[in-house]
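Feature request, filed as a ticket because there's no other form

It would be nice if the structure record came with a short human-readable summary line next to the tokens. Right now we just get the raw output. Example of a typical job, pasted below so the devs can see what we mean:
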Amino acid sequence: GGPLQNSNASVEIDGRRPPLADGPIAETTVTARLTSQPSADSLILRATLRNTGTAPVKLGKVRLVDGALSLSPGAVALSMTGWQTPSLVKRITERTGSKIFTQIVTPSQTFNLGFTTFTRASTEHWLWLESGRLRVESWCDFEGWALAPGAEVTSEQLRLATPTAPLQGLSDWADAAARQNPPRVWKEPISG
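Raw output as currently delivered:
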């Protein structure tokens, strides 16, 4: 147990948002396979979607996390813009978004959610207060991409972790992302 409580996964298919669980997804031609890989310091989540029908289906957001956090409402979070503008640390007093990675910090606990793959879909995290509790959603958005009949696609991979120190959490996520997306290293200097 980490701080995530009562999380429900869902997927947007052809404009509807049914729950996401292993097996056929109600009222669709899509079958899902959820994968979770626990390790000593993290949990990796992803979903594989297969269109078993005869017509394409449009995919939207695959919410891998949608739940409450047992963290103090006075928490701060790293909000990454996904652009070259500076990322900010914000007190969560209003709906706060972050691309790819977010880290929530209280005086006694750190929790991070970070996509370690980010090649097929836009990835986002949203945090907000609801009835005095912190809520979080983490999704990858296929933005209406059509999944062809007989085809399958895997969501981006989400890593959840409760590091013992905030800086270590950033470093651990970066290492996990680098393993999934090896940086390109040229043998000769690039010039042109």
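Something like this underneath would help us a lot:
The helical segments are 166-180.
The chain has a mean pLDDT of 93.
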